[in-house]
Amino acid sequence: MKKKGQRAFALVIVTGIITFLGALIAFNSIDINLGRTWVETIKMQRKAYYMALAGVEAARALLKNDSDEDREQGRRVDFITSELDPNEEVWSHASEIPIPMESSDGIRGTVGGVIVDETSKINLNMLVGGDGRGLRFSGGMREHPRVALVKRFFEIMGIEPRIVDNIIDWIDEDSEGIAESDYYLFLEHGYEAKNAPMDTITELLLIKDIDDTTFLKLTAGGTQEARNDPMYSPYLTVYPRIQPVGGYTINVNTAPAEVLMSLLEGIDEEVAQDIINRRQEEPFMRPGEFIRYLDEDLGLNLTRQDKSFLSEIVGVHSNYFSAKVSALVEGYSCTIRVVLERDAQGDSTILYWRVE
Fold first, then answer.
1. Can you give the pTM of this predicted structure?
2. What is the rounded CA–CA span in Å between residue 93 and residue 86?
3. Element (H, E) at 56
4. Do 115 and 92 contact (CB within 8 A), yes or no?
5. I need a surface site. Which of 35, 91, 159, 247 has the fewest CB within 10 A?
6. Mean pLDDT computed over 100-117
7. Which CATH number fits domain 122-233: 3.40.50.720, 3.90.79.10, 3.30.1360.40, 1.10.40.60?
8. What phi-psi label fits residue 116: left (phi over 0), alpha (psi between -120 and 50 degrees) or beta?
């Protein structure tokens, strides 16, 4: 496919931002009657914070540059490259670009991080419609395809799919259902059902029948990092919280196999791997291209309902990203986690912010 010829300038942009923000990192000596060790600790922690902040701005610059290049080439597509290439999707390899930094007063540090496509994941907030009502059924007694998608994912992860109904009760605005406030208020440390969109993945731990073991299976295949990070999950997201104008979509160019298998009943491990192999050779440029690939090339013989749902849920570009940026300065560290919404011009708005 045609290379993004000017993508190499992304690294130049990042370097410029780092240099500019480096001027903010100098933290003058505090001339007060306090122990030097305490003052030095505060000084280094402050420097680590500003270096991490510079890293966040670098991540936003990478996403902006990616969008500008796509617009110049007349396309809107985001994908993951197998190897770091300065002419391609640099954002997908941010973890491979550690940046050495030095403040104006000579203090050295290192900034590194990772940018993750949130649009590659299943958005749990899509279980509720724009009117705040749970999407349990569609067309009479047929289960709504969004609900069926999430339940297939639960089955893939070895979890009882009926728990999805409890998630719907947690999010929808009404108080009708088994897992509503009437249930939660009678727990030892009672609380009310949220009845609003989820803000973080860790809210799952508040929902009926989701214990630590179930949570870790859903979010990270059993790794402990998800238990400590409100946004960490390779499979699930809660952004955007409110249904956007174009509807909820999943980017099939970046989605992991487990998410691809959840799209339709006929997508098994073999088909999911075929999709991954195909997109590594050439990303899907339009949702219709992906649908035709399943129907004709892979011979899935999609029904009219299948095609209708896929045309609604499948995307090939991404507007929501999470970034984790860490800075290390002489043994002191700072980590900033953000969720970014990228608009049509490539500018990003911070939706979630956490400093560690």
1. 0.83
2. 10
3. helix 36-72
4. yes
5. 35
6. 82
7. 1.10.40.60
8. beta
